[in-house]
Amino acid sequence: MINMKVNLAGVELKNPVMEASGTFGSGAEYSEFVDLNQLGAVVTKGVASIPWPGNPTPRITETWGGMLNAIGLQNPGIDVFVKRDIPFLKQFDTKIIVNVCGRTEEDYIQVVERLGDEPVDLLEINISCPNVKEGGIAFGQDPKAVEAITRACKSHAKQPIIMKLSPNVTDITVMAKAAEAGGADVISLINTITGMKIDVDRRTFALANKTGGLSGPAIKPVAVRMVYQVAQAVRLPIIGMGGIQSSEDALEFILAGASAVAVGTANFYNPYATTEVVKGIFQYMEKNQMEDIGSLVGAVR
């Protein structure tokens, strides 16, 4: 009997596979392609205390080995999310992870408190948001801010919290340790890497925002390295992501120390990517006569 169940801060997932926030809407858009019951969890698009319009267009551009996005966390706000998206997701036998974003500590707390009595399983705190009170630097780029926002969210949350770390730092382990010190239950990484593309024919930036977040296969080696480093530095479960297209990619993250994985950019060109990864991991375990996926987590030292 093959056991693919994983435990994230007391929440049991039937398997370690979910999709990355912002690449799946809140599930409805992909439900005609993907049986959401087959996923360990569904991670929602970022939710803020009020509707966010996002950045001006163009907001997405392809690049070698991936894509750049500067969506700006466009979302309809917590009121619409609670009324529309949670009831939809509750139809399925999967865990619900809500991605929370904000521009101030108060913004995060407002959403975390509002979700306290909602039937969701985990909260993923997106600390790549610009901290408007600190001159726009992302919360996740300052270890003191990471610890402070983690502690604030944890003190108001009824669900376990996942801190989603930004890779745009000198030492990812410093940020991971800060999240652990603040009381994080789980860490997810990596978010996108800041990049830029210039349209040589138009002689202007490909994105209206000038810079955007690079995702896709091009960032996978960086992501695997960071997951490995964080797994050595903290004692928290890790959700690994960054360029996962196949079960082989996912297994790299698990062997590096991730307890679970998230599929992101691959969803845009292959809506079946998540369920293919679930099936592929099962087949790998079957082929190698492995009974429990836990034996693979961090097996590479």
Q: What is the name of the CATH class?
A: Alpha Beta
Order of helices and strands: EEEEEEHEHEHEHEEEEEHEHEHH
Number of helices: 8
Mean pLDDT figure: 96
Structural class: alpha/beta
Q: Whole-number radius of gyration?
A: 18 Å
Q: Would you report the number of β strands?
A: 16
Overall CATH architecture = Alpha-Beta Barrel
Q: For the record, what is the CATH homologous superfamily label?
A: Aldolase class I
CATH topology: TIM Barrel
Main β sheet profile: 8 strands, parallel
Shape: globular
Helix amount: 25-40%
Domain tally: 1
Sheet-strand content, in percent, reads 15-25%
Distance between the terminal alpha carbons, to the nearest Å?
A: 27 Å
Record the strand order, biggest sheet.
Answer: 3-16-15-10-9-8-7-4
**Spans with pLDDT under 50 lasting ≥5 residues?**
none
